[in-house]
Specification:
2 domains, alpha/beta, about 325 residues
């Protein structure tokens, strides 16, 4: 789907919504990097600490993967940290819908001395297809899915994604999965509605992107950022709420959108997990957990799984 078609489909009906992957243009990617530095968004720092431990555990008594692939690498900082801990040279594959993220990650890896890097601009599904097609005949493959990316999928879609990952791998290959865990509501809301307003700017940037790329006439000041903890669904929800009745033109999507006062655009759902339940879900799709790392204060888990023989269903 293109940006224009997703906007037309998502804003052309009620309730209004937009897919979260369109957050990540150049400005959106930089705003997200800033979010990761905020004291209220603790999972990035926790994940860095856990990646050092994971690399140490994964490098003991093994040759290490011949191919390392990351789906959604962001600026590449976490992948570079893991690769440095694993040591040795290996092929690297990056897959992301954001051109800016791929450029930043490739540059960071090159600066760290990792030269054999291929970048694929496209969906996770396209990335997995390329992994399956180009994985080495000898040596294992390792797929990374870090941050809270899994939380952007609704539960059924998350299970389907896990099956897709397993289908791209062979027994003995690795899967390193990060997951944000359920924590007190106050902590969750501070992470998604920080006092400095960086997350609010990140959310509103999707409106600015429509103005820049689709010729829309959104007045950003007339939309409020709102984050809500939905305990029943175990997810944080982000919205852009119209402060007044208004009508917005989006020529690039061939759309005129009327907003009532208080009407919202649903921009993201970020599911949070119970670590034991997530472990069982991943293992049900053909994996076995080999190393589990958890940062209790930050409420974040990093788990290394090995692909095992699939059972007949």
């Amino acid at each position: 789907m293109s940006f224009a078609s997703d906007v037309r489909r998502g804003l052309g009906r009620r309730p209004r919504r937009l897919p979260p992957h369109w957050f990540y243009d150049e400005l959106g990617s930089r705003l997200f990097d800033a979010i990761c530095l905020l004291p209220w968004y603790r999972i990035t720092r926790a994940e860095r600490r856990l990646l050092v431990r994971a690399a140490r555990a994964m490098s003991k008594g093994a040759a290490g993967p011949a191919l390392v692939a990351e789906l959604g690498p962001g600026n590449g900082e976490k992948l570079a940290l893991l690769l440095a801990g694993l040591g040795g040279s290996r092929r690297v594959l990056l897959a992301d819908i954001s051109r800016e993220a791929l450029s930043a990650a490739t540059a960071r890896l090159a600066k760290g001395g990792f030269a054999d890097v291929a970048a694929l601009r496209g969906s996770y599904e396209k990335g997995l297809a390329r992994i399956a097609r180009e994985r080495p005949r000898r040596g294992a493959a390792l797929v990374l899915f870090l941050g809270s990316n899994l939380g952007n999928f609704e539960p059924a879609r998350a299970s389907r994604f896990l099956r897709d990952v397993r289908s791209a791998l062979r027994p003995g290959d690795g899967f390193l999965l990060g997951a944000d865990l359920v924590k007190p509501e106050k902590d969750l809301l501070l992470a998604y509605d920080d006092p400095l307003g960086v997350t609010a700017a990140f959310n509103r940037n999707v409106l600015a992107r429509m103005n820049r790329e689709l010729g829309a006439d959104f007045d950003l000041s007339s939309f409020a950022h709102r984050a809500v903890w939905n305990a029943r669904e175990a997810r944080v929800e982000m919205y852009l709420v119209s402060r007044r009745a208004q009508r917005v033109r989006i020529p690039g999507a061939r759309l005129h959108v009327p907003f009532r006062r208080g009407e919202s655009i649903f921009t993201e759902a970020s599911y949070k997990y119970d670590s034991a339940e997530l472990l069982a879900r991943v293992e049900a799709e053909g994996f076995c957990a080999r190393h589990c790392f958890e940062d209790g204060p930050a409420g974040y888990a990093l788990t290394f799984y090995e692909a095992v023989e699939l059972r007949r269903r």
